[in-house]
Amino acid sequence: MIRLDERLSVIASFVRKDARICDVGTDHALLPCYLCENGAREVIASDVNENPLKAARANVEKYGFADRIRLIRSDGLSDIPPCDDVIIAGMGGELIAQILDGCKFISHGVRFILQPMTKAELLRRHLYSRGFEIAEEKGAAVSGKAYTVMLVLYTGEKREITDEFAYFGKNTDERYITKVNGQLEKLGKGDPALLRLIRKEQP
Ligand SMILES: C[S@@+](CC[C@H](N)C(=O)[O-])C[C@H]1O[C@@H](n2cnc3c(N)ncnc32)[C@H](O)[C@@H]1O
Questions:
Q1: CATH topology for the 6-160 domain
Q2: Fewest beta carbons within 10 Å, which of 27, 32, 88, 92?
């Protein structure tokens, strides 16, 4: 049985098992293998680099999912056929935004599961300025580090968001709020307006 850490488990919880799934920047392909073990029928595991794809291939064979997981070398979504659930996780917010911009199959039915390691505030602003919205956001922590995982849909309606929403999004996880508060404290030394965004208590 494949065991995932909390970050990958939360990502997996947003994925629909009957969907055409793509994991962009799959690295070891542990997530696609887990999804197959739990009923997914069709998963693309893609990466821009050859070494991660080698590690992915080894895991796909080890767990016996070569018939359900297709490995594709691709820079972002450039060589990926249309999918229903797209996972882009474990990368910086800027890179995730850039990969989304290159998606050729954005439509109302496609769900994006995004997990930025950095610059989540930049990613949230980018999403709303491009007609996406965050349907749901959940927190996760691994080795004392807090992360956010976003379920993102396309609406076509471009919107500006507040600074507060850019920093916290829809995440109400205490561990994530503590992390963002810490970031705002640091940034607030150069920009006092950011200090006012710090959350004193759970909303
Ligand atoms: C830190 S790993 C994250 C692995 C996994 N997604 C996770 O969340 O645990 C980042 C992976 O993204 C891949 N990557 C970086 N830039 C990429 C791009 N433009 N397109 C596809 N994969 C990319 C790297 O090769 C690496 O395997």
A1: Rossmann fold (3.40.50)
A2: 92
